[in-house]
Amino acid sequence: MNKSLIASCLFASLAFTTSCSNSQEKVVVEEIKLERKSQYTADNSATSLDWNGTYKGTVPCASCEGIETILTLNIDLTYKLSTHYFGRNDALEEDDMGAFAWDKTGSIITLENASNGFTHYKVGENRLWQLDMKGNKITGDLADHYILTKQ
């Protein structure tokens, strides 16, 4: 009897702890969304799209066969960027983590402390467009290759 009573108490406390932690996480996420929405006067990528998540693509490279790029954007405005350079003898791989910021229009993000040169991305529905060093859209024959798709 004591064993079943102890097991029941443990199960109940575990269920209570799990439900409290999930509701606290939901409250924090909702507070972040409300705070972000109050920064802008109109709908934009920051307020209207489900932008958080992982994006992946292979972008062109001048000295290799392509750069596999995986970028994860978190709701708390942090990111993880992983790059793998295909066809290089040294199999260069880099991982960066840090914060990102939205521009004043709420449509472009800038990665802070990223080691590679591309730090600006335009955010769209399930896509990120890698922008050039000045934050402009890349044009030309390879422009469609600078798109990361949400996984």
Descriptive overview:
Strands 1-2-3-4-5-6-7-8 form an 8-stranded antiparallel beta barrel. The protein folds into 2 domains: about 1-40; about 45-150, Beta Barrel (Lipocalin). Helices cover about 30% and strands about 35% of the residues. The longest helix has about 40 residues, at about 1-40. The protein is globular and about 50 Å long. The relative contact order is 0.13. The protein is of the alpha+beta class.
What is this entry, summarized?
This protein is an alpha+beta fold and 151 residues long. The protein has two domains: 2-39; 46-150, Lipocalin (Beta Barrel). Helix content is 28%, strand content 34%.
> What number is the mean pLDDT?
81
In the predicted model, the low-confidence regions spanning at least 5 consecutive residues are 1-18
- Helix tally equals 2
Number of strands: 8
Let me know the largest β-sheet: 8 strands, antiparallel, barrel
* Structural class determined from secondary elements: alpha+beta
Could you say what the CATH architecture of the largest domain is? Beta Barrel
Side by side, the strands of the main sheet go 1-2-3-4-5-6-7-8
Q: Using the coordinates shown, work out and report the CATH topology of the largest domain.
A: Lipocalin
The amount of beta strand, in percent, is 25-35%
> What does the overall shape look like?
globular
Q: Level of helix content?
A: 25-40%
Radius of gyration: 21 Å
CATH class of the largest domain: Mainly Beta
Q: H/E order of the elements?
A: HHEEEEEEEE
